[in-house]
Amino acid sequence: MLHRYPKRVAIIMLVLTLLVAVFPLWGPAVFGDQVDFIQEKLTLMVILALFAMSLDLLVGIVGLVSLGHALFFGIGAYTLALASPDYSAASLWWMLPLVIAVSAMTALMVGLLVIRTKGIFFIMTTLAFGQMFFYFISTSQFAGGTDGVFIMFRPSVTVGEATLLDLSDPQTFFYFCLGLLIAGYLFLRWLTRSYFGQVLDGIHDNEHRMQTLGYATHGYKLAAFVISGVIAAIAGMLAAMQYGFANPAQLGWHASGEVLMMLILGGMGTIFGPILGAFAYEILLYVFEHLTIHWPILMGLTIIGAVLVLPRGIAGLIIAPPGEKSADTSRRKSETVSPVDASAQPVAAQNKEG
Amino acid sequence: MHSEAMLVTRGLTRRFGGLVAVNAVDFDVKPGEIHAILGPNGAGKSTLINLLSGEIPPSEGEILFRDQPIQGKSVRQTARLGIGRSHQKTNIFPRLTCLQNCQLAARVHMGGIFASWRSRAHARMVDERAREVLETCHLMARADTPAADMSYGEQRQLQIAMVLATAPSLMLLDEPMAGMGHEETAQVTTLLERLSDRYTLVLIEHDMDSVFRLADRITVMVDGCVLESGPTEQIRRSEKVRDVYLGRHHEEATA
Q1: What percent of chain A has pLDDT over 70?
Q2: B243 shares contact with chain A (CB less than 8 Å)
Q3: Which helix (DSSP H) or strand (DSSP E) does residue A17 occupy?
Q4: Three-state DSSP class for A160?
Q5: Which residue of B has its CA nearest to A198?
Q6: How far apart are CA B24 and CA B59, in angstroms?
Q7: What is the pTM assigned to this prediction?
Q8: What is the DSSP letter of B59?
Q9: Assigned architecture for domain A7-157+164-319
Q10: To the nearest whole angstrom, how far is the Cα of B57 from the nearest Cα of chain A?
């Protein structure tokens, strides 16, 4: 069945999660005095994984390729930066709802305008909105222009007088991000397996047929667009906390393109794939950057290689390892009777996109 | 209901640029009948169906469904009114199972996904409805098979099952037997025969044997116009139809 994967997926993901979660135990032994830096990197990967996962709902599940997703990442970052008081910490109890509200409103407005377009037009309109916002922010005084805005204090998480979580502590912040990633994953997994997810799958396969059945497909796509935008904004908020600033670079089309590459690398439409993609991309980036200043060439070749060798990304490799003949992907070609009429192609052949 | 007919078109016309695909068609479907549309390729049969289901808006003329004008309504709106349609091309959701395909179809007409989300009883009703139509279409054994893995004939039957799951009062079937072998064609013909007790069907089909066996009335179209419309016996004996359509058809078949 769709969005149900072999057991090894769960096992591998659990092992990897545990490995990341207990990093403070094994990190110092492996990385020595670099451990703090590596932990920061790891935190960033967790945040980017959340970001990539949110885009997967749109690109992999609904089938809408967006090249403006960093817009929402930036909304999260700038909402935090601009709403934080200068000389004290904001409370997460109102900061998180604020980020969710602002991003949901933005996603709703942008979504209403772009959701009727498809394919290349959707790519172009999302790109246009992303760039509009990028230039608006980088030329606005209130947002610090190209310098961005600094965040002096990470939001506090308190109950009464007691501090529940001290997010300024790198270790606590790391676990906070990891917790949100896991929560986001469980939410999206539930969503894709729900009736709502089934409708999104239907739209991905054949939107017109969904309309013929009586579904108001635009509404469902808009809902997915908003959910995806809100999760991206939460990731953006975390990133701004991590960096200590919000910067226009976080919301340009470069950032949108990067997250798309994470998706391609990890495997679209699987939700867990983009998590692996984000980690793989960041690790590759780190390695390549150290090898040469021409690292984009290496990265480009790697992505091209991945597309050629692993059309379904790292996730595809885990779901159906090469050499193993299994039917659980439900994507294999149907062994249909050869059609007499040329216009009556079997469905599997019509459905080109992976 | 005021008029006898369930669906009526008056002066229905659709132009594509300079081409008049459907030209002032007056056409009516009586409740409970199987109404077949015949005609050579390019006669405008599929365009007519597309106009009836709201896939494309008419250039002129009106369509009354149960005395209500429906021209200009979208496919989604006509679907909600009870006009179910299947397409000439196989049009199913390949990654979903056979059962899920039907659930998807049934759910939207039984209150939508939120009703299923809120109550287990509703979700169960949807499930029962989906199984019922699979039973009707003899696909129960394939319930949990991904649609992509079913045979071509089964996929075509699933498509009919999905239309049934939406509990339509009028079914528009565009070449349900297209590309099928003899055995499968016979199977689907039997299925449609059984359905005719409970449903009103408009059928485009090239398989003459099936059409003459199934249809209560036949409308023959040529070049976008209605050549003749009437009971099956009348069409079978019509000189005009034999000359213009059946003759050509038989020539093609023997060529």
Answers
A1: 91
A2: no
A3: helix A7-21
A4: coil
A5: B104
A6: 10
A7: 0.87
A8: S
A9: Orthogonal Bundle (1.10)
A10: 15
CB-based contacts of A130, cutoff 8 Å, min separation 6: A67, A68, A69, A70, A71, A251, A252, A253, A256
Kindly provide the ipTM of the predicted complex, given to two decimals.
0.85
- Please state, in angstroms and rounded to a whole number, the distance separating the CA atoms of residues B34 and B202: 6
pLDDT at residue B113, as a whole number: 86
Chain B residues lying within 8 Å of A197, measured CB to CB: none
Helices (H) and strands (E) in chain A, counts: 14, 4
Among B207, B229, B191, B190, which Cα is nearest to B48's?
B229
Confirm if A266 and A278 have CB atoms less than 8 A apart. yes
Residue B144's pLDDT band, with cuts at 50, 70 and 90, is very high
Token pair, residue B38, equals 């015949």
Question: Which residues are A9's β-sheet partners?
Answer: none
Q: Using 50, 70 and 90 to split pLDDT, how confident is the model at B146?
A: very high
Residue extents of the structural domains in chain A: 7-157+164-319
Hey, are the CB atoms on A347 and B155 less than 8 Å from each other? yes
Q: Which helix (H) or strand (E) holds A31?
A: helix A23-31
Q: B1-82+168-255: what fold?
A: Rossmann fold (3.40.50)
Among chain B residues, the shortest Cα distance to A196 is held by B113
The answer to whether residue B249 scores a pLDDT higher than 70 is: no
Spatial distance between the Cα atoms of B184 and A83, rounded to a whole number of angstroms: 66
Based on C-alpha coordinates, what's the Rg of chain B?
Answer: 18
Asked if B93 reaches chain A (Cβ–Cβ under 8 Å), the answer is yes
Chain A closest-CA separation from residue B27 CA (Å)? 22
> First-to-last CA distance in chain B?
48
**Which helix or strand (DSSP H or E) is residue A104 part of?**
helix A92-114
- Domain coordinates in residue numbering, chain B: 1-82+168-255, 93-167
Integer angstrom CA distances of residue B21 from A139, B13, B86, B89: 55, 8, 20, 20
Residue positions counted in chain A: 354
What is the Cα–Cα distance from A41 to A279, expressed in whole angstroms?
10
DSSP A216: -
Residue A83 has pLDDT above 80, yes or no: yes
Measured between beta carbons, which residues in chain A are less than 8 angstroms from residue B96? 2, 198, 201-202, 205
Tell whether B178 lies on the interface with A, counting CB pairs under 8 A. yes
Q: Find the range with the poorest average confidence among A278-292, B1-15, B55-69, B132-146.
A: B1-15
